[in-house]
Specification:
Layout lengths: L9 E5 L3 H13 L3 E5 L2 H8 L4 E6 L8 H11 L4 E5 L4 H9 L4 E4 L4 H17 L3 E4 L2 E4 L4 E4 L2 E3 L3 H12 L5 E2 H9 L9 H13 L8 E4 L3 E4 L3
Parallel strand pairs: 1-2, 1-3, 3-4, 4-5
Antiparallel strand pairs: 6-7, 7-8, 8-9, 10-12, 11-12
Helix pairs in contact: 2-3, 6-7, 6-8
Amino acid sequence: MSGTPHDAKRIVVVDDDTRLIRLIERYLQTAGYACDAADNGEEGLRKALLPSVALVILDLILPPTSGLTVLKQIRDVATVPVLILSARTDVAVRVQALKAGADDYLVKPFNRAELLARVEAVLRRSQAGASVLRAADLEMDVHERVVRRGGRQIALRPTEFRLLEFFLRHKNRVLTRDEIMKNVWGMDFDPGTNLLSVYISYLRRSVDEGSAAALIRTVRRKGFMLTDR
């Protein structure tokens, strides 16, 4: 992954063909993306659900879990875009994958230029569609930088806004302290400081106080979660 920018969008490639993985990684890294790879469905699912992932490129034929099953498991908990890359050309399979939540479908063998164009298009659509984030009666307009809960507008400082946005983009998932610190502050979690605890407290005061249900929860020994259930 040398040569990619520190803030490059991270793409997870899941395929059981390691030579193809290396080829795709080279294409993506040359285009400025950061890459991670998995050669089986279980590892692919784990990596696909990491908070920093911007896109998943997923094969359908994987050991021991099929790509279609992995896709459905991703969609159960996350909205990360998924581009299917498969040798299966039959229309029924494409339709099944798209109905299961795939954002696009590219058939092998593929052209480098088309792969990169599909990646850019999927990322562009996902970013355009992520302007308004919701959980229960909480709503954030990312572009207008407005937050409301139950119709009540909430004033947040910039760091609180970034923290809440990160929670909303990964709602219903336990986020570790290290994940939060790296993605919101750009640093590793330091157990010797209470910075994160202080900002979680600020955010709870703004978002949860006066509401019937608390959305921001502490998960003992694991981290925090924003839930809409």
